[in-house]
Every structure is written in structure tokens, then in C-alpha cells.
From TrEMBL:
Superkingdom of source: Bacteria
Residue span(s) of domain Xaa-Pro dipeptidyl-peptidase-like: 52-129
Taxonomic placement: Bacteria, Pseudomonadati, Thermodesulfobacteriota, Desulfobacteria, Desulfobacterales
Electron transport keyword on record: no
InterPro entries noted in UniProt: AB_hydrolase_fold (IPR029058), Xaa-Pro-like_dom (IPR000383)
Protein name, entry field: Alpha/beta hydrolase family protein
Gene Ontology molecular function, alphabetical: hydrolase activity
UniProt keyword list: Hydrolase
Amino acid sequence: MEQKVSIPCGDITLSGLFDEGLGKKGVVITHPHPLYGGNMYNPVVETIARAYREKGYAALRFDFRGTGASTGRYDDGEGEQEDVAAALAWMQDRGIGPVALSGYSFGAWVIALCAAGLAGVDHVILVAPPVIFVSFDDVTSIPQLAGVVVGEADDLAPPGPVGALVPGWNKTARLSVVQGADHMFWGFDRELQARIEEMIG
């Protein structure tokens, strides 16, 4: 069962939903762009959480600053990286570890920007990193990257451009393409969940 939690992050507080899972492993999950309606209740975010719960992970999804009940305001991906670090620390302070990171769309971008600098991250799975919408030029390496899932018909995260970047992020990371799916993965939630579960291992 998920429970509402508050996560301290500097002088702001983030609102989250936490499921303690069955074991010690955990995951922090990030949501799509808050200025376009993205939040922790997004269906793809829920699918990611479900995939990790099926694997016995404790799952924490949260609203970025300025979204939902989280205080502060949108910070164009900069402050949001601090939000990820705060959520990771919240999990680790509770004895949960190792902790994975997984994000969708804007949330995938934020994780891609900060993962390399975070300690104690077990692996990273990105869903539909929007390489056409925001710049990934500052993402030179994601050493913990296990895999990336994209939709075959995604206009913001097309398989070709994303696939060209993945080897530079991590040579061992897998690219998984869901045939027929667009950026929202409407109607492909079960397929998406299966792909994520495969990458979790």
C-alpha cells in the first residue's frame, strides 16, 4: 500500500507516495514536465512503479517542486535535480538500498543530468527521454544506466535519435522499442511494464 510522505529538500518540502515493498531494494521515480500537466499520478509513472513493485522494490514517486502539494516553484531542470537527490537521500535514510532511479520524459531528462553525480544509485532506467524537446548535450555519461525504453511512434523520443545517444551514455545499456507506442504509451502499459521488468532483471 502506498502512503503519502513528505520529503525535505533544502527549504522546500516535496510530496510523495511511498510503497515499502518486500525487501531492502528501492526505486525513486520521476514524472513528466510539470508545466504540461505532468505529476506523480501520470499513468506511465504508475506503470514504472508497478513494474518495480512486482520485482519486490520499495517505490517512491514524488511531485517535483511547485507541482501538486510540493512547495517551491519550477526550476527548468536545475532545482529538480536537487529534488531527485533529496528523494534518494530520503530512501537511504530509511535503510533502503540499493536504490534505483527511473524517470519518464522530463523526469528521465532530470535523472540523466544528475545520476552520474549521485552516490549509491544501483541502476537507472529511462522511459522516453525527450531528446527532441530538451537538450541532452550536458549528459556525457550515465554510468548506472541499465536501459532505455521508447515508443516506436514517439515524436519526442524517437528510437533513432535516442538510440544514437545511448552508447555514449553507457555502452552496456539496452534500448528497447515498443512497437506502435507513442510518447504517452496509451494502450501499451502492459508491454511497457514488461520491458521495464526485463531491464530490472
